[in-house]
Hints:
The chain contains 5 helices and no strands. It has helices at 3-27, 38-44, 50-77, 83-113, 125-160. Helix 3 (50-77) packs antiparallel against helix 4 (83-113). By secondary structure, the protein is mainly α.
Amino acid sequence: MNWPRIILDGVSMSLLFNAVVGLGFLLVPQAYSTMFPKEIKEAAAPFVDQKDVRTMKLILYPLYLLMFVYWGISAHFADISGFRYLFWTGYAEMTMVSISDFLILDVWLPGKVRHMVKGAEHWERKEWLLKLAVPEHCLGWTFLVCPIAGLIVAGIGLLIG
């Protein structure tokens, strides 16, 4: 495995991911309330426009696709081959995205912009972290999202290599 390349790709895609998702949040903040804890979803539901939710999905889905394709092609050019190495490359890079997402979008950003989402003005940071951010990143990303990313990157790497 090519660790300098993995770290470089992970950091660059982490920056891209956080910039795009952060900008998307600034453009259509109410749409992102669909990803918040249940209490906030219910409080924000009357203010959510389905057009904004579609815009959010048009931002997020191509972003994930771009990251997976980039990682697969980058691994190919870094001479990373074999399913096992490609899988762990994708897993490690998505883990870096998860950590940066947690630190920037779940820890730092909500404290700065909670007033932008109607229905989320009064939530407590500790409750947010305990009910959404920590379980999402410690369990959801670690055992679901990162392995899926690893499988996708391995598949792409095997197809082009």
